[in-house]
Amino acid sequence: STLVKIHEVKVNYPMKAKILERLTRDLNQYGVRLETLLYGENDTEKVFYFGLVASNDEKVTRLLEYLTKVHERTFKFSIEKIFYEEASKSYFGELKVEIL
After folding, report:
1. Burial level of 34, CB count in 10 A (0-12/13-18/19+)?
2. Mean pLDDT along residues 71-90
């Protein structure tokens, strides 16, 4: 029983640092900056929340299209809204990334 649990953790446990490295590389590729980062988990889900900033909304949209296509079996992505802030002339959104 103990060996099975150790094996499960070693094989199936997603390393948060590797996940962050992979996703931030994608952010950089699409010219989207990371403003905030939160992580939470409970018995049923493990979720990252990325506060995104971009110079135009198309960058965020293209990023989301890419992520959902490339990582569809690993993560579930959702973003409720993208809003524009006149003072900074930037677009903001919160990307929810659920680890499957």
Report:
1. middle
2. 93
What are the pLDDT digits (tens) for 35-70?
999 999 888 888 999 999 999 999 999 999 999 999
Reduced to 3 states, what is the DSSP secondary structure of residue 34? strand
Q: What is the pTM of this model?
A: 0.80
Under 8 Å CB-to-CB from 17, ≥6 apart: which residues? Answer: none
Rg (CA), the chain: 16
Residues 50, 76: contact at Cβ < 8 Å? no
Cβ pair 95, 77 in contact under 8 A = yes
Which residue, 53, 48, 49, is CA-closest to 27? 53
Query: Angle at the Cα of 58 (from 80 to 18), degrees rounded to 5?
Result: 70
Residue with tokens 């079996």: 73
**Could you write out the DSSP letters of every residue in 62-96?**
HHHHHHHHHSTTTEEEEEEEEEEETTTTEEEEEEE
